[in-house]
Write a structure and sequence with these properties.
Chain B: InterPro entries: 4-PPantetheinyl_Trfase_dom, 4-PPantetheinyl_Trfase_dom_sf, AASDHPPT_N, P-Pant_transferase_sf. Chain B: It is an enzyme of class 2 (transferase). Chain B: One of its GO terms (molecular function) is magnesium ion binding. Chain B: Keywords: Transferase. The complex is a heterodimer of chains A (about 130) and B (about 300). Chain A is mainly α. In chain A, about 45% of the residues lie in helices and about 0% in strands. The radius of gyration of chain A is 16 Å and the shape is globular. In chain B, about 30% of the residues lie in helices and about 25% in strands. Chain B has 7 helices and 14 strands. In chain B, the strands form 4 sheets. In chain B, strands 1, 4, 5, 11, 12 and 14 form a 6-stranded mixed sheet that branches. Chain B has a 4-stranded antiparallel sheet with strand order 6-10-9-13, covered by helices on one side. The chains are: A mainly alpha (about 130), B alpha+beta (about 300). At the A-B interface, helix 2, helix 3 and helix 4 of A face helix 2, helix 3, helix 4, strand 4 and helix 5 of B.
Chain lengths: ~130, ~300
């Protein structure tokens, strides 16, 4: 987080839980991601664990320190992910959760929660 | 300390100097403007840039984690506002007064004031930024998409695994055929920026054109081929690939406006300027700061 010190380039006080009103200039799509066909493997994951695992994959891709606060609300773009990072994060999530995410969904995931929700839906299909 | 810094802190205690005005690009021209964040070091100047933004854009900038990300987000908003303001549409356009909206697919556009007798120009723009470069492309009329990336950018995943997952078979084949891993990495980045630029030019969001539904062919010239009409190279779009400052690739995709004889595309007429808004502007097209590495481009 930016420190409001004399040497900080932004003299304004940074917000602790940023609410982004204008979407990141590079994110255009607002469509809900479509579902991919599920594979035959039983594994049900609880919500907080999913968010935690997604956060871990995100931190690894963006080379963020382990103690960086990443929650469901955290936007990939705000953490420094560009579109290439986002696609790589989805590849990492596919490996982590043994799922397959449709190509167009990869680009439309904006927050950690978006990713966790999508994963939950895909995994739920497997449990059903 | 940079000698510039002392002058700037004196000058910026009051108002910012005026922006150098520029003529709108002609129908056939593309203007490329860019800022190198590492060269913008003055805290007072960056504060002044922040003051140009409406509250919701300041919030957006501050929403990025860490100084470096906030700085490039700030410079992106500053670059787009000051660049469009330079064209002096409607006489005294203040970068502060510009309003933006999104089209139905989410692509950002200028929201011109509706006034009697004022006919807004068909100005098109697109921005792209990394932590080390912020760029804005401007045209009159022609849809534009741009994407910038560091040449040295490395993927965490293996390139071919990534390409097999997200690119088309032809593109995988093209990458696979490159024996040198360094060159392969660079080709991958070039392909990525070209594909991004195309989708951004289309302006319909990434969901409407997943990367594995179109191929970028870059053998002689650069062209896009959509999978649903494979025999039909999509002639509506033309591309330029530039190497900027020896360190970055810049891909530009434009809607084709006119053709030369026998349907042949005319080269892209490009004017490139490096800028630190309110401080300095430098015409760099035709110098070795901007090298055309793909597509048909004439630099002015």
């Amino acid at each position: 987080m930016a420190a409001a010190s004399a040497s900080s380039f932004i003299p304004l006080k940074p917000r602790p839980t940023p609410r982004v009103k204008l979407g990141a200039p590079q994110s255009f799509s607002f469509r809900r991601p479509a579902l991919a066909p599920a594979r035959l493997r039983i594994s049900c994951v609880a919500k907080p664990e999913t968010v935690e695992k997604v956060a871990k994959v995100v931190k690894k891709q963006l080379a963020l320190p382990a103690e960086t606060l990443v929650t469901g609300d955290s936007k990939f773009a705000a953490l420094g992910a560009d579109s290439l990072d986002t696609v790589e994060i989805v590849m990492g999530l596919e490996e982590e959760f043994d799922i397959s995410v449709e190509e167009d969904s990869a680009q439309s995931i904006a927050t950690v929660q978006d990713a966790a929700d999508l994963i939950e839906e895909l995994v739920r299909k497997k449990c059903a | 300390m940079n000698p510039h810094y002392c002058c700037l802190s004196r000058n910026f205690s009051a108002a910012l100097p005026p922006l150098l005005p520029v003529q709108l690009p002609s129908r056939m021209e593309t203007h490329l403007w860019y800022v190198v964040p590492d060269e913008v070091k003055s805290a007072p100047l960056l504060s002044k840039y922040m003051e140009l933004l409406p509250q919701y854009e300041r919030d957006h900038v501050l929403g990025f984690r860490g100084d470096q990300l906030q700085k490039s987000a700030l410079l992106a908003r500053t670059l787009v506002r000051t660049t469009i303001a330079r064209y002096q549409v409607d006489d005294h356009l203040d970068p502060r007064s510009l309003r933006f909206k999104r089209n139905i697919h989410g692509k950002p556009e200028v929201e011109w004031e509706t006034k009697d007798g004022f006919c807004p120009p068909p100005l098109q723009f697109n921005i792209s930024h990394t932590s080390s470069l912020v760029a804005c492309g401007v045209t009159m009329n022609s849809l534009i998409g741009i994407d910038v990336e560091e040449k040295r950018r490395r993927t965490k995943n293996n390139i071919l695994a990534f390409a097999k997952r997200y690119f088309t078979a032809h593109e995988v084949e093209h990458l696979n055929a490159i024996p040198d891993s360094e060159l392969q990495q660079q080709e991958f980045i070039k392909l990525w920026t070209l594909k991004e630029a195309y989708v951004k030019a289309l302006g319909k969001g990434f969901s409407s054109s997943p990367f594995n539904t179109f191929t970028i062919r870059a053998s002689s010239g650069i062209a896009v081929e959509t999978l649903d009409s494979p025999q039909n190279l999509t002639n509506n779009w033309q591309f330029a690939l530039l190497e900027l400052m020896g360190s970055h690739y810049v891909a530009i995709c434009l809607e084709r406006q006119e053709t030369g004889g026998a349907g042949k595309a005319l080269p892209i007429k490009l004017t490139a300027r490096k800028t630190i808004p309110f401080v300095e502007d430098e015409l760099v097209s035709g110098t070795n700061a901007v090298v055309t590495i793909g597509g048909s481009v004439t630099q002015f």
